């Protein structure tokens, strides 16, 4: 499965959430509301999630292994940097 499109829908300079992203796979399947978050060790992606119970969240969709997460994160960060640099 290949990432065929990454759209950075919203960028924020304030707070820890830096952007909201949609990713399309094989021009056939899209995942919305992936968040780019600024953490203590730099940026990371947070997959779309739903609140279950008191303060607990569960991912709705997520990569099964670390290699897939790394590949997805690389595509997302590359597009985020392009969009961010255009705005500056």
TrEMBL record:
Coiled coil (residue ranges): none
InterPro entries tied to this protein: SpoVG
Its job: Could be involved in septation.
Keywords: Cell cycle, Cell division, Septation
Ion transport listed as a keyword: no
Family: Belongs to the SpoVG family.
Domain of life: Bacteria
Pfam families xrefs: SpoVG (PF04026)
This protein's name: Putative septation protein SpoVG
Keyword Cell division: yes
Organism lineage: Bacteria, Bacillati, Bacillota, Clostridia, Eubacteriales
